[in-house]
Write a structure and sequence with these properties.
The protein is an alpha+beta fold and about 375 residues long. The chain is about 45% helix and about 15% strand. It folds into 3 domains: about 120 residues, no CATH class; about 160 residues, no CATH class; about 90 residues, no CATH class. Strand 1 and strand 2 form a beta hairpin.
Length: about 375
Amino acid sequence: MKLLREYIRGLLIETAIGQCYPHAVKMAKGSSQEEFSDLTRFKVVHGRVTDKYSGESVLHAWVEKGGMVFDWQTHSTKPDGIPKDIYYDMYSPEIHNEYTAEETMVNCLKSGQAGPWVLRETRLKQISKPKFTDLRQHLAGSSFLDADPAGDLDEDTWSSEAAVVLRDDLNDYFDSKFEPGYLTAVVKVDMGWTDPKAGKDSILKNATYYFKGGLHFVEIMLADIDDGTVIRDMGRPEQKVYEVILHELLHMQQFLRFSKGEPTDKKWKLFMKEYQRRGGASGMGSDYFFFDEPGGASELETFSLQIATELVDALGQKAAISTLGHQPDYDTIRKNSASFRGIESAGNLTSRPEFKELIKRAKQYARLPI
């Protein structure tokens, strides 16, 4: 096994990287009918691999199917592939994107090249991928819904049983959809008591995405409920958690686009520079909801997504699209979107030109499988 690892390691060299994308496309063309649209059977992966011995790091593309990895560097000597566990142990892949064979072919035709495409995909394409949207079902089955949500001191940390369970479930999900440790959930508990009669929209107090030490983080604050009520009793709170986390994951995608798929702490500071200069969430006032830095951070974008997600959940996709139509039904939007009500509460904002853009983008998101 050691000799196999050393042999494979010697094959993956930077001079050959240029052929890895065309080879992955070629394999996609040759995929079977059963594999063509099924990510669990066949996937083209774009990312960065790092040699665990030399530290050499390069952008790369490979194919995964049947527990094996196939790439250009080893296709001649290892035509039957390399066991995934060996490959991942040697190269610690940082996955930037995964594509079905069908998506691979479409992207190749649209872009006129074999890859990478991470920066060429629309903002809509990314967040509607199953690795994001499957979170809804995962949360619906989480035991955090029945765990004790009452805050208490655990050594020096204010937490709750529900927060710990939710944190662990989220991290299990992120580890399975991305790579272990690539994205970490941090779940805190509010210091103030929440009345469970306030319903699902009060279950989270705040949320944020940030990048630190080469890793991605999503941090949320769970309500403290200490009257014996469990979170499940608050009326589908898992949907609210999903909507908010999806909002933050879109921020992660914004940063990945800004950093050209190679995030660093330095690039994170540049990404956040204008946002912080304007005062951040607490200092921008009503401008916060419409912050929209071209090619950078955008709250307008993430709130558009959240409004769409709320409306699709409450009304169904067809009715949500109609409600957000050429003449938006603001009464229906207001009734069914907590995000919309929050924006309205900041002032008379419907007359702002950015408001029309917010609704326009929400309609675009409502058309997706979110």
